[in-house]
Design goal:
This protein is an alpha/beta fold. It has 16 helices and 18 strands. It is 34% helix and 23% strand. Strand 5 and strand 6 form a beta hairpin. The longest helix is centred in the last third of the chain and has 20 residues.
Length: 497
């Protein structure tokens, strides 16, 4: 493996404005977001422990020895009960007994970073404020998408093509995949659940190898997170709570990276505990905190190396399979092809379905659905209950995510054959507020099915809105507490309390 020098840069230039700074890894690493003087350009600075010349030599020597004498170390790291960190520390103590104090602390940090972590981008991967990492080629600065500042250039780069190619091979290995000149495209999930797309070599990418890593956290998004971040209001999330609980099918619509999957994940927390969820994705991204959940992934022809004739299972196959397993909810991570037809057929046969799709308005959504390659007849579109639009909005100089519109599909106009829909919620970017239209056909339907008056339903809406608001005002509310409170309220509603 090509060696890489640890990034130990520090920003000391006068006149630069520090917009944010915080520490990671128990204060081993400092992150600063700096506005550069004169240009107003934002730079994401990673500052790691600084190694002296002698410490740097010891680090590279130890790294070479580990690569030479412990070839199975990364394999062993996946064995239950094996602690790679302890192994590395023990190795350093035995091979370099003269290293003491601060020196051994710093060297152990870099060894753990490079063997157990993600190498030079490991601090970025561990930063909870970063959503995406983009490497556009060797000698090019890595870019990150920061929750507070959007797309920002970093002070980290790969020094040459050989080094970056070596790193992409490593990403493939830790994802259980392979990449080569013959098969240069990598699409995988790392052991920590991060999605990687990479191009190896220069056959496809003229600027050399590139990769993008989309970061997913262990803790899935919840309705409370959407309220805290301002993506949705408590009354909007209460509406989606009723709609999910009431088995209404929905599409979440927006641009790439707008937060469609996170919104989908959070809404599914409202699924009652006595229901079954069946999710289908090309690459696992959903993390649904539901006991009765089947998570399925598509499979390509070359998924299993060395085994010929492996049956390919695409999204259409899995949607068809899901319908035979009697799930309450069929969830497709994203629709873009003929699986969309199967999903709408599932709606027409009484299944509750959820998915995401790329579009920016109701008109563009209907255009996508009704034309190639989806070809959904307009009569099937009418079985969809809700459309949720989520978009990027510029607010006080920052790009933020907002659910900008929620529409209810009413049906088809008998004379014009047009899809009729009712806009239930609308976002105003000038006031950064969400407005309820004052009426909802689906609220009326829920009241009718429950056998309660509109005023009784409105009382329950207020209770749930108050609960979500209270949870969002807590400094810390873990997913178990949020889920527990939602389940409790659902059973109280069933019992008429």
């Amino acid at each position: 493996m090509v060696e890489e020098q640890p990034p130990v840069q520090s920003e000391k230039a006068s006149g630069n404005h520090i917009l944010s700074q915080y520490t990671l890894n128990h204060e081993n690493v400092r992150i600063r977001v700096v506005e550069m003087a004169g240009t107003s350009e934002l730079i994401y600075l990673v500052e790691e422990p600084k190694l002296s010349k002698r410490e740097l030599e010891e680090f590279f020597a130890l790294k070479a020895e580990i690569n030479d004498y412990l070839p199975d170390i990364l394999v062993l790291s996946g064995v239950d009960g094996f602690n790679l960190n302890n192994m590395l520390s023990s190795f350093v103590n035995q091979r370099r007994p003269w290293l003491k104090g601060e020196s051994i602390f710093k060297i152990n940090y870099y060894l753990a970073r490079d063997f157990q972590g993600y190498g030079i981008i490991d601090p970025i991967v561990r930063d909870q404020k970063v959503e995406d990492i983009s490497c556009d080629g060797p000698e090019m600065p890595i870019f990150v998408y920061h929750k507070d500042f959007g797309s920002v250039k970093t002070n980290i780069s790969f020094p040459n093509t050989e080094n970056l190619d070596s790193y992409i091979i490593r990403l493939a290995q830790i994802s259980g995949k392979s990449v080569s000149i013959n098969a240069p495209i990598l699409d995988s999930i790392t052991r920590d659940g991060h999605r990687v797309q990479a191009v190896y070599g220069s056959e496809i990418s003229s600027r050399g190898p590139v990769f993008t890593m989309r970061l997913f956290r262990d803790r899935p998004f919840t309705p409370v997170d959407l309220i805290k971040s301002g993506t949705a209001s408590p009354d909007l999330m209460t509406y989606l709570w009723f709609m999910t609980e009431g088995f209404n099918s929905a599409l979440i619509v927006g641009a790439p990276g707008a937060g469609k999957t996170s919104t989908l994940n959070s809404i599914l927390l409202f699924a009652p505990s006595n229901t079954k969820v069946f999710s289908i994705e090309e690459t696992r991204e959903l993390k649904i905190p539901h006991e009765n959940w089947v998570a399925a992934e598509t499979r390509g022809k070359n998924t299993i190396e060395g085994q010929r004739g492996v049956e390919r299972l695409n999204m259409y196959d899995l949607v068809s399979m899901a319908m035979r397993q009697r799930p309450t909810y069929i969830v497709v991570g994203e629709v873009r092809g003929k699986e969309t037809y199967a999903l709408f057929q599932a709606m027409a046969t009484g299944h509750t379905t959820y998915s995401t799709i790329h579009a920016d308005s109701m008109e563009s959504l209907l255009n996508r659905l009704e034309n190639e390659p989806m070809n959904i007849p307009r009569v099937l579109v009418s079985y969809l209950n809700i459309v949720i639009f989520i978009n990027f909005v510029r607010l006080e100089g920052k790009m933020v995510r907002r659910i900008t519109e929620v529409d209810e599909i009413i049906g088809i106009d008998g004379k014009t054959d047009e899809i009729l829909y009712n806009r239930v919620f609308h976002y105003d970017p000038y006031s950064d507020k969400f407005s309820y239209a004052g009426s909802s056909k689906l609220y009326d339907r829920i009241a009718e099915r429950r056998g309660v008056t509109n005023s009784k339903l409105l009382e329950e809406v207020r209770k749930r809105t108050g609960l979500l608001l209270t949870l969002s005002q807590k400094k810390e509310a873990d997913i178990e507490e949020i889920s527990g409170e939602i389940r409790k309220r659902q059973w109280e509603w069933i019992r008429g309390e």
